[in-house]
Structure formats: C-alpha cells, structure tokens
From TrEMBL:
It comes from Pseudomonas lalucatii. It catalyses: L-cysteine + L-glutamate + ATP = gamma-L-glutamyl-L-cysteine + ADP + phosphate + H(+). GO terms for molecular function: glutamate-cysteine ligase activity. This is Glutamate--cysteine ligase. Pathway: Sulfur metabolism; glutathione biosynthesis; glutathione from L-cysteine and L-glutamate: step 1/2. Signal peptide: none annotated.
Amino acid sequence: MSDLLSRRLALLGERANLSLLSQCLHGIERECLRVDSDGQLALTPHPAALGSALTHPQITTDYSEALLEFITPAEADPATTLADLELIHRYAYSKLDGEYLWSPSMPCALPDEETIPIARYGDSHIGRLKYVYRKGLALRYGKTMQCIAGIHYNFSLPDSLWALLQHAEGDSRSARDYQSARYIGLIRNFRRYSWLLMYLFGASPALDAGFMRGRPHQLQQLDADTLYLPYATSLRMSDLGYQSNAQAGLTPCYNDLASYTDSLRQAVGTPYPAYVEAGTQKDGEWLQLNTNILQIENEYYSNIRPKRVTHSGERPIQALVARGVQYVEVRCLDINPFLPLGIDLAEARFLDAFLLFCALHSSPLLDSDECHACTDNFLAVVKEGRRPGLQLQRQGQAVGLQAWAEELLDSIRPLAELLDRSLGGDAHLQALQAQRAKVADAALTPSAQVLAQLQQGESFTQFALRHSKLHAEHFRSLPLSAERQAAFEAAAAKSLRDQAELEAQEEGDFDSFAAAYQASILAQAI
C-alpha cells in the first residue's frame, strides 16, 4: 500500500472521522426493454399509467419508447437504493399489461430499424428537443445499437470528507477545485482498473443473431439464433458494431476537469462532414439537432462521467464549469439477467469499496501510452476476459489478468474493512470475498454462468425470456401496499399534469428554441 493511501485511511479511520464514510451517496439508473409475451419488442406507447416520460422523476424512457429507465433517489445506504429500485419495479409491473421487462443488457429480437419506435416526450420545446436528439442518434449510429440496456451507478463522497483530506494535505486550492480534481483523479484510476469490473460483473457474452443486421463480425455461432464469443464477459461494452468515426478522436484522458469540459464543448461546436452532408432538416422535418461531432454532451459514450446536478434549463457542462464535480456516474455495468433488479447488494458493496479505492489511491496523470493501454485492457477483457492466461498491459509490461486482479483485490481490502468499521458488520469484506472466488474460478462469473445455461440448449432469446418471466413472477407476487401504490399513482398523475402545463405555457417556435439551446454552450467557449 502506498504511503499516501495509508495516511488517508488512517485519517478516515480515526474515531472522529469514521462516520464520514456512512455519508457517501448512491443512486441507480436501470434501463430495460419492454417486450411482449413472445419476447418481441413492445411496440405499444409508454404506458400512461407510468406517467410522463418527460417529467416523472423516477420512471422515464431512454432511447426507444420501449426502453424504460428507472431512477432512484440518492441514498446513504445502497440497501435503501436497491429497495427504492425494487419498489419502482413492483409499481411498473402493476401497470404492464401482458408485457415484461427484458432480463439482459443485449436486446431481444428486434424488428427492422424503421419499426423500432423512438421515445416521444410530447409537444413542449424541451420534449421535441429530446425527440430530435434521438432522431439524430438513429441517423448517426442506427436504432439497433440504442436498444442496448445497462445499469448506471452514481456515487459521491461527502463534501466534509474532501474538506478533511484537503486540510490534512495542506492543499491551497479552493474547495471546489480540490474536490473536482480528486473526482477526476478517481476517474483516472477507474480508467486504469475498470477492466476488473467487466471480468467480475460482465454478463453479456452472447446475443440474438439478428442484432448484427447481417454486418460482418468476429462472433461465433452458438445456435441458429445466437452469436457469442467463448471467453467474452461483456459484448455490450465491446467495440462490436458500435463504430463512431466522429467520436474516434474524442478520448479525454481526464487529466483535469477543464480539459474534459473543453474537449466536449469543442465537439458540440465542431461540424463533422458526414453529418453536415445529411443536414439538420429535410422537407421541414428535423433530422438531428446539429451537424457537429456531438449534438449534445451526453452523446459522448464513456464508461464513467463526472457529474453535477443541473439547475432547470442548465446544460451538464455548464453545471460542471460553474460548480465543479459533485459525483461520478459509472456506466459500464451490465444487467445481470439472473437478478430481478439486474444488480444486487453484494455488487453494490464491492463497487463502493472499488470506487473508494479509486478515490483515495494515488492517481498520477495519464500519458498517451497509458491512456491507450487502459482502452486496450478494457477491450481485451470484455471480449476475452475468461481466456486462461490472458495477459494485460501494465506500465509497458505484460501481466496476467488473474495475478493483477488478485493484487487489486488485496489493495481494495483495506477500503472494504474501513467501510465495515464505519457502517458495522462485515458486508463489504463478504462482497470482496465473493469477487476473490470469481478470480480463482472464472466459471463463477455471470458471463460464464450465462454461457453455461445457453450451452444446455436454450437460445439467447429463450434464456432471456424465461428469466424475464421469472422476474415478473417475483415482482407480481409482492404487490405494493395500498399506500405506496397510491403514492406512485399520484406521482404518475402529477407528471402528466406537469407535462400538460409545460406544453400550455410554451412560447415562441421550436427552431428558435433549438438555436438558443445550441448557442448556450457555444457562448461558454468565448
């Protein structure tokens, strides 16, 4: 263990400071496709009983009208976060008429691209903006890619913990700049070590053959309807089929917040020839918000993002520049198809220890070579993570995945112990031990377990639909109390009223609104 990490752990382990770790916040966003009883994509509109996808704080849609997204509040205990997520699922299932939530990350058998419905958000300017943005995604990347689902894990440390460390280390920056720099340091370490999460939690080694749309690929045929790679952990996070030449040069290595926001701001303001050729409108219909490398910041695909809660009408980059980093959003987690929520408490506890390690461990700047090695290691593990003897790159040297994973788990152990001291019990150590077992035996990983079931003779679709129906039984066997059900129904009704109010109050035309939205970020570049 480094001296710096030892000092930080000792400081946080003092009796007066130990409670700070119990104030970390956790939130989850879980995406999932609605499917019919045959495992086909639901072509029905977003259920009105779930409320407005535009204004409901907890139940919305992502890319497609069929791609639900459930959002929990930020809670101090991940057990509470998961309980919140469970309640949303139970409410949703009370309103899903004969439909199911698809259990894995990779999508069901999809209809042709034209038939996949883009999410609708009503007639307000912001609702139309969200729709046009998604039309732009369809134009740029195709709709099939946008039907992949995942879990986003939001994590923050309390401001008082950062203040304690800053004081102890005699750092003279403003509190905001120190905290932002430390979160960016966390992200650099995440880039170094996130391959470990893909080995431990990747759960998408196979997919429906139709997903490839006849494109050339390196996948193997498992059966007539299923493609896979024998040692893959997460085809979802591979470069499979998702090739964005426009974003190829956009690889911020997170050496400071300013370079990150500047690179995104530049991409939102720089035309890209193929998009310029397509144009923003055709026959009076919007095709995309603009013809730049990115339409908006969120179009940049990354495994982790620095985040700040935005004010009404504020853009993500504006919030980061104005007030600094508040939390991180981990975006590379597959949905575990064996779990009703797609994630469980053991995974959340390990993520907390892993992210705390990334935050407190020294985090030197990434040079170009290490930046490329981080990307290469990640791609090697998502495609071949369970291959016996797989070698990764560390500081220019080859290192075995298993040996490096064991070293990392040894380094994370003191963080798990500190969290257990802070919160009581041994849940974090138990979660760590469960991961050690997976490193010792790749057959225990979710990706291996998925393949083991598929090799019994089920196609990907049969496997996924069977688990989708098992999860539906689980949630439907636990109806909400009348009080909770009424509260969800009231929230849904309020969101519909809020959307109607927004639409009734709208002034001006959409073209002017879209132009002002674009200008709002470019103005910051001056």
